[in-house]
Records
---
Amino acid sequence: MNRFIRRGFLGALAGLAAAAPFLVLSAVGVPEFAVAIVAASMYGVCVPPARRAYADGIMAAASLGIPNWGISSVILLPVLSGNHMAWDAVGMQEHFASLVGWILFGALLGGMLQIASEIAEVHYGPEAAPASPLPSKLTRIVILGGGFGGMRAAEHLEEELGNSALISLVSDTNALLFTPMLAEVAGSSLEPSHISVPLRSSLRRTHFVRGRVTDVDFDKRVIVLDGAGEKGRELKYDHVIFALGAVSNYLGLKNVERLAFNFKTLLDAIRIRNHVIEMFERADRETDPSARRQLLTFVIAGGGFAGVELAGALNDFAHGIFADYRNLNIEELCVTLVHSRDRILPELSDTLAAYALEKMKQRGVTFRLGARLVDAQPGLVTLSDGLISAETLVWTAGTAPNPVIRTLALPTTPRGAITVDSTLAVPDRLTVWALGDCAAVIDSETKKPCPPTAQFAIREAATVAKNICASLKGRPATDFHFRSLGALCVVGHQNACVELTVPFAHTRSLRFSGLFAWLIWRGIYVSKLPGLERKIRVLTAWTLELFFPRDISQTIELGAKDTHGSYAAVSRNI
Ligand SMILES: Cc1cc2nc3c(=O)[nH]c(=O)nc-3n(C[C@H](O)[C@H](O)[C@H](O)COP(=O)(O)OP(=O)(O)OC[C@H]3O[C@@H](n4cnc5c(N)ncnc54)[C@H](O)[C@@H]3O)c2cc1C
């Protein structure tokens, strides 16, 4: 039997058993009962069976009770019965009993599904594995980088080549970072683990290698790695894919590089969150008003998506925690966004960018447009048109391809990105491929450079995987072409801007703003977040956020050195 039909059937069966006691006790009506069976069946389809994972199964399905409750009891059933939706906190509290019911149902479902899967395995054998060609000669494909592009390339290669290739993925971190939600970690809406997806367990047939690429010998086809206590470890390849991403580019501003926070990695977001809390702690005991204002001024350089989303998230976070600091006055808070052009969000249309600016101003964010950051000193940020007294500066104003690329014998652009042809192969190096933020990809139809976004990186990964398969099977390679599906940006306080390209009418777009756009943003990104468990955790955190204040506990020791000893203070006071 097809494995998805089998899982759906087992899910429905487990749902029936878990929901029956609620129906018998008249705790739910027939509509809720039916919704529960459908949800259970869908859950069954999405969750691959794991042996004796009772605790995991029960916990994962119990947490699914929260989004289920939100979708069915708060939205779907009231709408179907003609009642108004209860969006506010007071309205939602009326549904509290059904929330408990959904969580109990989830826990029962998780247990029942585990029992049903194990009985099915004993009686009918394990699930049918996807068909894969028999190995003849095992081709060694090595993917460098475990970000959006690298992970997607591995998934595609697994699908296309099955067991006929040895796929390895090398990364210096053991998890994919879901960057679109990074601002939510800095703003304390989500936990770091919510947006990092472990590579080892997410990729089924790919061999994960934790290590840092330091060199590649293209003649001998050998990659040199450092990491896990080893130096100079070698890895052979037949095909290699470069997906090493980008780093912050400080445009030669040495003091800014030394003093500003980066906003690229999970550690950056954790540091920023802890530093903001530290600034509040220090401001709370500071008696000098000008020093207090300096502590409570947060400067963000860069008015693109990352800078705007971070400014919105920090502003919300700061407003949310003010109540905990009795000695502070909200008037002393200042979140400032510095941008060198005269309008923010150049990737969005004028109207949406103007909307974002207006909404953020209403929430208290100040803007320094048409101003460049030229220097930073402790406690002082220097702009091309003035000074700002601030203890916090975050840099989101520029990126550059991973610097390790310049050290390798690869053709690069003046920016340092790997030059690739229209099939994403590196010219004159037949088995070397590159994609994502570290490559200079030109769209084969529009002839325009592709932007450094996850949206493009994952499509480029699919093309590279297809072309490697084509080259192994002696078929012609495909040129890369992709049109952006649109752009989304959260501006804070449950507002967002969304611009979606109309299919088959590429010059036209659908534009949304406000709460509806914010819900679209959340819906799209939670659906893109890899893995059911992560989706559930994020939905649960967002639901809980409606009822409880932001957490102000500091999770890392400020001023401590990290394992390399090179990052001096975790709190980078300027
Ligand atoms: C705050 C923020 C928000 C963003 N929001 C969006 C968004 O909403 N939508 C969107 O489409 N894009 C967004 N982006 C851009 C998106 O994250 C990147 O375009 C995308 O991650 C590029 O994918 P990649 O695979 O090329 O590189 P990355 O995802 O950056 O992956 C690079 C990988 O290489 C690893 N690596 C680096 N150096 C080495 C080495 N020497 N050895 C081994 N491994 C190494 C890294 O650890 C990482 O795993 C955002 C970026 C940021 C910073």
---
Amino acid sequence: MALKVAVVGCGGVARGSHLPAWKKVPDIELVALCDKDKARADAAVAQFGGKAYYDLEEMLDKVKPDIADVCPREPDHCAPVVITLGRNVNTIVEKPMFCKTNQLAVQWSDLKEAKKMLDAWKKSKAKLAMNFNYRHSPHGKRMKQLIESGELGKPVAIVVHAHLWCWSHVIDLMRWFMGDVVELGAAVSGIPNQMERSAWLKFKNGCTGSITGTWHSSMTHAPLRIDYTGDKARATMYNLSGSIEVYGHGGPSIPGGPVDKKIEVFGDGVRSEFGVNSFIGSLTAFSRAVREGAEYAPSGLDGYRELEIDAGIFKSAETGESIKFKV
Ligand SMILES: NC(=O)c1ccc[n+]([C@@H]2O[C@H](COP(=O)([O-])OP(=O)(O)OC[C@H]3O[C@@H](n4cnc5c(N)ncnc54)[C@H](O)[C@@H]3O)[C@@H](O)[C@H]2O)c1
């Protein structure tokens, strides 16, 4: 039987990505679209079908969905998620998990609200998932396969550079590839709400790394670069276009020497393919986990860990001390 899906929040990302994606997810029925703004809910229903609701609790009572896809802006994530989980509705929420002011200036106090979602999840019979859809990008999946295949050897270090536009996604990818961060130290510069930021990181697996985020990078250039070093080889991914390059350690000792292998993911500059497809991947994987009663990642805990790193960078820069995480 098809799973009943309700979408909460019918703004830009819902209409541009989630709703077109849900139309392509197998074995689901898009039953309800809810927005506090009546015009937005009505417009979304006219385009994608389902029934319009303007109040979340009324929608949950009437529809009893199997899945709620929570798409408001980040200051409005906590209340709906606590409500959907309180009614044992499997919930997937947009990234970042929570922030009160601006997602480019996540505060340590934002973790308190995010924790409320984890507490609601603990009491619920339902799943809590994050829509970190970059895990479903062609580059993200290929890089993860490379790491897991053992071709790069045992993990050694990771270097990340990203436009702040995709900041929370890139922190999530870094954790996905290297695991939990146990300590970081950071510095920030620039203007409020767009601050450049750099951190050194220590991972639970004993490896080290660094991450830099900037607003000052051309959007025509790859918005993120992840360089993963294993003890056999190093791989660099340039999302959202181009190839993944693999450099074996046994090759020429000249820095910048020949690339051992180029994995063509798709042609340079092809961004549109990544867009909705990664949402289809994320929502399909979550609905499958719900149907099969299987564990799902990225979970609410992955959302919380990502937010901790984001907030920890500002806290470290402010206090001048490193931040340790209990993971
Ligand atoms: N995964 C991605 O790649 C990606 C891309 C873009 C945006 N996002 C994220 O998506 C989220 C939404 O961004 P947006 O640009 O669509 O925002 P938006 O402001 O365009 O839309 C949010 C909508 O949610 C509605 N809303 C708020 N609280 C509600 C509630 N309790 N019940 C029902 N409706 C409610 C608002 O009325 C509004 O229509 C943000 O967290 C953003 O960071 C993710």
---
Amino acid sequence: MPLLAVRPQCRQSTGSPAPWGCCAEGEEHGSGAGDGVQADAAGAERMSPIVAGVLQAVQLTMADPSSVPVPSAAIGVGTWAWGNRFLWGYDPARDAELEATFRRALDLGLTFFDSADSYGTGRWTGRSELLLGRFCSALGPDQGQRVQVATKLAPFPWRLGRRGYRRAFEASRRRLNGHLQRVQLHWSTARYAPWQEGPLLDGLADLVLAGEVAELGVSNMGPRRLRQVVHHLAGRGVRLSSLQVQLSLLSPGPIAPGGVAAVCRELGVELIAYSPLALGLLARSGGESRPMPQGPRAALFRRLEPQLTPLLQRLAVIAAAHRAPLAAVALNWCRAHGAMPIVGLRSVAQAETAAEALRWQLSPEDRRDLDAIALALPRRMPANPFQSA
Ligand SMILES: NC(=O)c1ccc[n+]([C@@H]2O[C@H](COP(=O)([O-])OP(=O)(O)OC[C@H]3O[C@@H](n4cnc5c(N)ncnc54)[C@H](OP(=O)(O)O)[C@@H]3O)[C@@H](O)[C@H]2O)c1
């Protein structure tokens, strides 16, 4: 297993693994996987040639960041809009439509649902989890067993220490009526409070080891921090299931050389693509004079849309070849990079469009064409300010 081969990122002079936060952001403390391979190569010279050769081959294969991605089989559903008035204009009068969307998505094979304890604005804080819990509880046992719910806990500054997430976890689990398979650190604090996130993650690992939740994930982490976290958790006997980052044709950083997608492949961590439609911008077909969305998204769309003609034209050609909607191509680009897109859905029609993407995959040629266009775009989606290196 790749996890076993991950070398300590950072060693103190005693040679023991460094504690959390030893590497400040922007500071290179030696061995990433590449360094690990060099150190082991030197040691391998003292072994029998056969053992040394096998060891080196295994390590080089696992450290090879250019390994070809295996397309993701799944598409998940994001629920940020369920309770958010500010960006998404949430209206509780439409909850029945959200439940219909949830059920339709499930029927069509979209079984992974992502939420967060910070979703919902003002008096609707926690609404996304509450609705998800309610919808899950209303399912029959067969359907209920198919749903996988992941939530994210925010590392607010007052959530400190190994037990800092305890009450938040219990509150989320209550809102979700116990339907919770994966708990995720919502964002990395490495940039501004590197000491905070280690104990919080240790607390989440405690929950996994105690059998209170099955899986652990993180979000908004870059390659360096991811390696540290995977290594530390492996030392505790806990596997990191997933990393969630912003990934779309308008936010292609994770698939660029040195990006986190290759590191996920190397370490066996599932990559989850959030905002895969760039908040819906990538689902708007070019040339069509569709009305702008209400609220702050309109300003973003106006800033990014003028440069999109070559991308939208290429998307339209691929979409036509597969008799698929534009949104399905954008989702399948994420899947082609080995990432499971979690698309924000709030209507049955949107669920059906997303499920359309499951019946086909992007060819490697189309993926490479889209990569080239995406990586050359002068303007991208705003990066998450908490994303660590
Ligand atoms: N970890 C993090 O920090 C983080 C950050 C952001 C998001 N997320 C997660 O990722 C999920 C998805 O990201 P997102 O909601 O930001 O954006 P997204 O998935 O890129 O876009 C969602 C929006 O696209 C539009 N859309 C969806 N399907 C469509 C279709 N078939 N045709 C046309 N338009 C369609 C809808 O907008 P309209 O209804 O207005 O048409 C929808 O609300 C979130 O819900 C959340 O769970 C995580």
